[in-house]
Amino acid sequence: MIYIKNKMKIGGLEVEKLAKKFRTPLYCYSYEELYKNVINLKKILRKINPLICFSVKSNSNIKILKEIKKLGLGADVVSIGELMKALKAGINPKKIVFSGVGKTKNEIEYAINKKILLINAESKNEIALIEKIAKSKKRKVDIGIRLNPNTDAKTLSQISTGKKENKFGVDEKTFLKLVSFIKQSSNLNLKCLSAHIGSQILDNQPYLKMLNIIDKVIKKTNYQFEYIDLGGGMGIDYMHNNNKFDFKKYSLNIQKFLKKNNSTIIFEPGRSIIGNTAILISKIIYIKNGFKKDFVILDSAMNDFMRPALYNAKHKILPLKKNNTKTKKIYEFVGPICESTDKFSTIKKFQKLNEDEYIAICDVGAYGTSLASNYNVRPKPMEILIKDSKIKIINKRQKLSEIM
């Protein structure tokens, strides 16, 4: 996304023309950014040579998943629906990891039938169910155990997953007992130690702490794990102030870890691959004078993009056309839904805006459409992908008749 002569462009195409042609709200993805993110990540991690499993929960658009498959990635899934989408996109089952605390009998059976790489179990009860199903099928099933390393990722409480009060994984004591239990099972094959401490993490320190804890636990198990799944959670620079996660530092820490532990590393990145690839283009319906601020009422709402309402997340908002003006007013960008949380950002010193103009909410590729809903009986927006200066419709705009 760049400005040329004050007009925003993606892949050489003028974004305002896209907005007028396809209408808004409109999700617009850049294949160039997606490709660059994957290639850069592979380059930085080449000495580790990990299996990279894209986190499908971050974006489950099948046409996006097909592009990700072409780039050689696997998939991290947390439901039967995500698993079905990953398989439909052509992702190799032996590159698919099934995570999540509440897998049902139906989901576990489906995963076993599809012969995926790993089911990462998160409780004693789940392991017992997997064993029961495997026994009934006369199969030996490859599984992992998710360790809760009790590590504070210093991120939002809503997306913290690695502290002892979180629902995810098992503590060290339980982990050691489960390793012993699985060793005795004739229907389970323990392949992986899994951990994931949260999301939108920008500091390497929590990951270093996690690696140290995993190293100590492995020593206590006296067991050789074929895979160490380190999850994902690496953050991106939402506010465009050069606050980026240091992948090189993380890679060096993992290389030190691997000198003591001869395992294949699995990563489950989502946001760091897809987050900055998309914008949500919105039209200004009204500008309403308010007390101390003006409300810029958009045709996009919290049903189209939930992150600000759900997490109080901050996203950069930019005009599609720069006009080199500055307003003294405070603009609050809001949607039309009947909720006070239906707002995107409050900004001082923005350029002067007018009704019927367009803005872009930036970096919405992760947890944008995957969290979208029909709240207030609003149709879900269209998604397009710009690849080689060509437009691909990757999801049609939902019609009201379909909702009815």
Structure notes:
- The structure is a single chain.
- This protein is α/β, with parallel strands linked by helices and 404 residues long.
- The chain folds into 2 domains: 2-29 and 276-403, Lyase, Ornithine Decarboxylase, Chain A, domain 1 (Beta Barrel), CATH 2.40.37; 31-274, TIM Barrel (Alpha-Beta Barrel).
- Helices cover 29% and strands 24% of the residues.
- It contains 12 helices and 20 strands.
- The chain has helices at residues 15-22, 31-44, 62-70, 80-88, 105-113, 124-136, 172-183, 205-221, 247-260, 271-274, 307-311, 400-403, and strands at residues 2-4, 7-10, 13-14, 26-30, 51-55, 74-77, 96-98, 118-121, 141-146, 188-194, 227-229, 264-267, 278-289, 294-298, 317-319, 330-334, 343-348, 358-362, 382-387, 390-395.
- The strands form 3 sheets. Strands 4, 13, 14, 15, 16, 17, 18, 19 and 20 form a 9-stranded mixed β-sheet that branches.
- Helix 5 (105-113) packs across helix 6 and helix 8 packs parallel to helix 9.
- The longest helix has 17 residues, at 205-221.
- The two termini are 37 Å apart.
Quick recap:
This protein is α/β, with parallel strands linked by helices and 404 residues long. The chain has helices at residues 15-22, 31-44, 62-70, 80-88, 105-113, 124-136, 172-183, 205-221, 247-260, 271-274, 307-311, 400-403, and strands spanning 2-4, 7-10, 13-14, 26-30, 51-55, 74-77, 96-98, 118-121, 141-146, 188-194, 227-229, 264-267, 278-289, 294-298, 317-319, 330-334, 343-348, 358-362, 382-387, 390-395.
Annotate the secondary structure layout.
Blueprint: E1 2-4, E2 7-10, E3 13-14, H1 15-22, E4 26-30, H2 31-44, E5 51-55, H3 62-70, E6 74-77, H4 80-88, E7 96-98, H5 105-113, E8 118-121, H6 124-136, E9 141-146, H7 172-183, E10 188-194, H8 205-221, E11 227-229, H9 247-260, E12 264-267, H10 271-274, E13 278-289, E14 294-298, H11 307-311, E15 317-319, E16 330-334, E17 343-348, E18 358-362, E19 382-387, E20 390-395, H12 400-403
Parallel strand pairs: 4-19, 5-6, 5-12, 6-7, 7-8, 8-9, 9-10, 10-11, 11-12, 14-16
Antiparallel strand pairs: 1-2, 2-3, 4-13, 13-14, 13-18, 15-18, 16-17, 19-20
